[in-house]
Inverse folding.
């Protein structure tokens, strides 16, 4: 099985490396500087264009930033080369966009399309412990499933196109609120004069602790703001969640508060830092 990968960002790069350990992989990225990070990986061919990736691959994974990035890559020429091939899109987009893209690839250009956003950030991606949220035709999902073992700890079929994205919106709501909660809690502990190393052990030993919360606590303790999931990505995700909630008629008061906080962090120049860096924005606010 020849596999292709389009997009070598924070998530795409480790995903591609994990796939290359098991399958011949052809990759493309807009910035060729990322290719230097793949020099020690076997089974990888570097393509000069997205078309080259599609032409030599049976299954093509896409992990780009947004719908505009996908449109720039999937030109009509590239789409025509998708006949008889399968596209697996892991980019976070709107449900409407995913459904339209899937219909276009299948009905117009004769390819198969699977929606598969992932739940998880940089470290789970590196570890191959993402959760794949598959949506589309069930037979396509089952055909792709065996290839997902290097990427995921679980690959869950959620239903027709749009279902995977909806599951991601809901999961990201939890992750966003939890990250903001950890940041606010650690800020409060610091304001109370507590030793953050000791208090971190309190949180990590508590029934509320998880691998996610422990990771965020450690980043705050270490002053490590390197992005696993950045403030900028969080703001983009929050806009998708807000739009989906409005369409569904769902009230998300906590998420609305967190979105305002992350928008403020973005405006404060923290867009490239990890989402838990929102603690800096919290610390600048006055009490009350």
């Amino acid at each position: 099985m020849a596999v292709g990968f389009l997009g070598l960002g924070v998530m795409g790069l480790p995903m591609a490396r994990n796939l290359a350990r098991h399958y011949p992989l052809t990759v493309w990225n807009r910035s060729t500087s990322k290719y230097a990070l793949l020099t020690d990986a076997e089974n990888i061919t570097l393509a000069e264009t997205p078309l080259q990736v599609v032409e030599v691959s049976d299954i093509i994974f896409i992990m780009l930033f947004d719908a505009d990035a996908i449109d720039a890559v999937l030109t009509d020429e590239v789409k025509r080369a998708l006949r008889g091939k399968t596209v697996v899109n892991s980019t976070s987009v709107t449900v409407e966009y995913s459904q339209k893209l899937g219909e276009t690839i299948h009905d117009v250009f004769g390819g198969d399309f699977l929606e598969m956003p992932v739940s998880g950030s940089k470290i789970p991606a590196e570890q191959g412990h993402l959760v794949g949220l598959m949506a589309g035709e069930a037979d396509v999902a089952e055909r792709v499933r065996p290839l997902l073992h290097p990427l995921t700890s679980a690959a869950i079929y959620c239903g027709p196109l749009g279902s995977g994205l909806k599951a991601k919106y809901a999961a990201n709501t939890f992750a966003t609120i939890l990250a903001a909660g950890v940041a606010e809690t650690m800020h409060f502990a610091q304001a109370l004069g507590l030793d953050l190393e000791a208090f971190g052990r309190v949180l990590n030993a508590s029934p509320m602790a998880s691998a996610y919360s422990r990771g965020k606590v450690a980043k705050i303790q270490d002053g490590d703001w390197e992005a696993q999931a950045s403030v900028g990505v969080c703001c983009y995700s929050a806009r998708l969640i807000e739009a989906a909630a409005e369409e569904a008629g769902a009230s998300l008061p906590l998420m609305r508060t967190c979105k305002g906080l992350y928008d403020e962090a973005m405006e404060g120049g923290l867009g490239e830092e990890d989402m838990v860096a929102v603690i800096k924005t919290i610390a600048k606010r006055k009490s009350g």
